[in-house]
Structures are given as C-alpha cells and as structure tokens.
Amino acid sequence: MRFMMFIYPGIEDEANWNPSAEDVAAMTAYNEKLTQAGVLLALDGLHPSAEGARVTYPGGKAKVTDGPFAEAKELIGGYWLIQAKSKEEAVEWASRCPCTEGAVVEVRRVFEMSDFPADVQEAATLSSTPPQQTASA
C-alpha cells in the first residue's frame, strides 16, 4: 500500500523561515533511513505559501486566492510518498520523523485503482499508459 505523509511544520513566520543545517542534516538522515528500508517512493519540500495559490469552487466556479495564507497550522511544508505494509507501519515511519514542537505529520493511504469497483475503474481509464508517478506499485 502507498501512503502519503504530509508535514505541517507549524512555522509561524513562514516568509522568513529557513531550515538550519542541523535540521537539514536530521531530515536527510531520516530520508536516508526511508531509502535504506526500501519504502521511500518520492518526497519533496514546498516553497512558502506566498508563492502559491488556492483554488476554491464557490457555486461550482473556480476562484483563485493567491498566498500567503493566514493559518500557519494548515500549511503543508512537504510530503513523502512511501510504500508500507499497513497503516501502522506508515504511522511508525511518521513517528520517527525529526519534527520540532508544533509540527504535524498526517498519514493518508493513497487510493489504488483496485480499491474501486469495475465500473469506476472503467470510467477512470484515459489511456493505456498511465503517468508513471500514479502507476500502482
């Protein structure tokens, strides 16, 4: 099963935040453990929300709001995509993340096409070659 682990770093001053060398070294060591265990599929950190946008759909029509966004607790700082045997294993990996006070790592299972009934799988078929990043492992 694939799991997405989103990190909400809980940084109050996102615009002026930069990681310390110690923070980067700790996170690099954690990422290396994920790699050595053969569970890491992908990871990325995200630029500050000031460089992003949110698209909402009031009344079914797209509305764009440029960042920054006010609620620091709700800002995603990055993600890991991992392969784990169970939710418990994924949560165990999340528990080992070298986070500071206020940070949150949310663990969510990724839908696989096999999770859906046949008619839904058929409706989702766009091409015979899905993008590599969404192909089942």
Descriptive overview:
The structure is a single chain. The protein has 137 residues and is α+β, with helices and mostly antiparallel strands. The chain has 3 helices and 6 strands, in the order βαββββαβα. The strands form 2 sheets. The protein has a 4-stranded antiparallel sheet with strand order 2-5-1-6, covered by helices on one side. Strands 3-4 form a two-stranded antiparallel sheet. The radius of gyration is 17 Å and the shape is flat.
Topology:
Blueprint lengths: L1 E7 L12 H16 L3 E6 L7 E4 L6 E4 L11 E6 L3 H9 L8 E6 L8 H6 L14
Q: Give the end-to-end Cα distance, rounded to a whole number of Å.
A: 8 Å
Main beta sheet: 4 strands, antiparallel
* Subunit arrangement of the protein: single chain
Low-pLDDT ranges: none
Q: Note the total helix count.
A: 3
In spatial order, strands of the major sheet run 2-5-1-6
Mean pLDDT: 90
Radius of gyration: 17 Å
Helix content: 10-25%
- Strand elements, count: 6
Structural class: alpha+beta
Tell me the fraction of residues in β-strands, as a range. 15-25%
SSE ordering: EHEEEEHEH
Principal-axes geometry comes out as flat
Main traits of this protein?
flat, 137 residues, 3 helices, single chain, alpha+beta, four-stranded antiparallel sheet
Short recap of the structure:
The protein has helices spanning 21-36, 87-95, 118-123; strands at residues 2-8, 40-45, 53-56, 63-66, 78-83, 104-109.
